Amino acid sequence: MAETPHEVETEQPLISHLIELRNRLLHVVLAVLVIFAGLVYFSNDLYTLLAGPLLAHLPAEGTMIATDVASPFLTPIKLALVVSVFAAMPFILYQLWAFVAPGLYAHERKLIFPLMVSSVFLFYAGMAFAYFVVFPLVFGFFTATAPTGVAVMTDISKYLDFVLTIFFAFGIAFEVPIFTILLVWTGVTTPESLRGKRPYIVVGAFVVGMLLTPPDIFSQTLLAIPMWMLFEAGLFFSGYFLKLKQQREQEEEEELDMDATLARYEAEQAAVEGRAEQDKTS
C-alpha cells in the first residue's frame, strides 16, 4: 500500500531529528574522548588531588590500599574518564540547547538559556562545596572516631565510589533553585503554594540527604541545609521569572490584538473600496 503524502511529510522531519540527535551525541562523545586523551596521562595526579582531603586526616603511618590486582591502574583511569565528563558538561548542555532551541518560542529561549548556564555553575558549585567543606569535616570525623587498634586504610576504588557519590549528590542538590523556578514557570505550582509547604520541604530535604549521601548524620545534614537555603533562593527568583513570563505573555496578547485590529481594518478598507468600485461600474 502506497504511503500518503502526509505520512511521508511526518516521517521526514522525524528522520531528520534523529539524524541531528545522533550527530550531536557523536559530538559529545568526541569531546569527552578528546578531554580524556589529555587527562589520562595525569590520572595518577588527579587521584592524588582527589585523595587529599582523606590523606590530610590519616595518621602519620596511615595509607590508602588497593585490594584488587587491577585497582592501581583502573581506578585512576576511571577517575580521568569521570572528570572528562564533568569538564565537558558545558559543551554537553550546549549540544542539548542547540537541539531543543529551534522548537522553543523566543521568550522561552530567553529563559531556558540562562537557566542552563546557571545549572552548570550550580553543579560545579555543589562539587566544590563537597570537596572544600564536606570532605574535610566528614573524613576528620571518620578518622577521629576509629576504635583503638584499628588502622584506617581505605581501598582506593571504594574511596573513589564514595567521593563520586558525594559529588553527584551535591551537584544535583545545588540544582534545587533551577527545579523550583521551572516548576513555577511551567505552572505546576506557585510561589505562594511553595511557601505554604515550606515545613514539608525542609523535612523532605533531610530525607533526600539521607537517601543520596552515605549513612552518616554529618553528610546528610551538610546536604540538607544547603538544599533548604537553595530552595529559598529559587523561591525568591521564581517570583521574578513568573512576573517576567506574565509580562511577555501580556505583550504577546497585545501584539495579537493589534494584528487582529489591523486585519479587521484592512478588511473593512477592502470592503469599502470594493463597494466604491461597484458604484463606479454601476
Could you characterize the architecture of this molecule?
- This protein has helices spanning 5-39, 43-55, 71-87, 89-100, 106-144, 156-173, 176-185, 191-196, 198-212, 217-281.
- The chain is elongated.
- Mean pLDDT is 79; it is low at 5-9.
- The chain has 10 helices and no strands.
- The relative contact order is 0.08.
- It is 82% helix and 0% strand.
- With 282 residues, the protein is mainly alpha-helical.
Quick recap of the structure?
This protein has 282 residues and is mainly alpha-helical. It has helices at 5-39, 43-55, 71-87, 89-100, 106-144, 156-173, 176-185, 191-196, 198-212, 217-281. Helix 6 (156-173) crosses helix 10 (217-281).
Search tags:
10 helices, single chain, 0% strand, mainly alpha, 282 residues
How far the N terminus sits from the C terminus, by CA atoms, comes to: 57 Å
Fraction of residues in helix:
over 70%
Radius of gyration (Å): 28 Å
Poorly predicted segments = 5-9
SSE order, one letter for each helix or strand: HHHHHHHHHH
Class from secondary-structure proportions: mainly alpha
Count of extended strands:
0
Largest sheet: none
Secondary-structure map:
Layout (H helix, E strand, L loop, with lengths): L4 H35 L3 H13 L15 H17 L1 H12 L5 H39 L11 H18 L2 H10 L5 H6 L1 H15 L4 H65 L1
Helix pairs in contact: 1-3, 1-4, 2-3, 4-5, 5-6, 5-10, 6-10, 7-10, 9-10
